[in-house]
Amino acid sequence: MKIESIAGNFSVCIVFDYDNIDLLDKYTFIGKTDEENSLVCLSETVPANVIERDDGLKGMRIQGELDFSLIGILAQIATALAKNKISIFVVSTFNTDYIFVKEADFTKALLVLASEGYELI
């Protein structure tokens, strides 16, 4: 399985609303619940109406489209990183999963995944 690094730094945010979010940005993940309006985006595109933010994340994605019948892919990645004390934040889309780690842990995370047999691209 291939893991692709994504260029740029990411932020995870709580926003007041989605009015100031540019949905044409390359990476924009939004989630709305009865408790919050969440946003994950490149740090340089965080909108002004942010309530809270956590910066300094780097991203990677599982390359290719993952069929819904596949089991345990994300669990295996999470377990390998957890064993090495690397915390993750995950966003899943229809096609694949995006894994975010703190910038200070990013190189270590890539080394861990490579040692587990993942091909890094």
CATH topology: VC0802-like
CATH architecture assignment name: 2-Layer Sandwich
Shape: elongated
**What proportion strand?**
35-45%
Q: How is the quaternary structure best described?
A: single chain
- What is the CA–CA distance across the termini? 10 Å
By secondary-structure content and strand pairing, the structural class works out as: alpha+beta
Integer count of domains: 1
Describe the main β-sheet briefly. 7 strands, mixed
Q: What is Rg?
A: 15 Å
> What is the string of helix and strand elements?
EEEEHEEHE
Mean pLDDT: 92
The helix content is 10-25%
Total DSSP helices: 2
CATH H-level superfamily title: VC0802-like
Number of strands: 7
What does this structure look like?
The protein has 121 residues and is of the alpha+beta class. It has one domain (2-120): 2-Layer Sandwich (VC0802-like), CATH 3.30.2130. Helices cover 20% and strands 41% of the residues. The chain contains two helices and seven strands. The protein has helices at 73-83, 103-115, and strands spanning 2-15, 28-32, 37-42, 50-62, 89-92, 97-102, 119-120. Strands 1, 2, 3, 4, 5, 6 and 7 form a seven-stranded mixed sheet that branches. The protein is elongated and about 40 Å long. The relative contact order is 0.24.
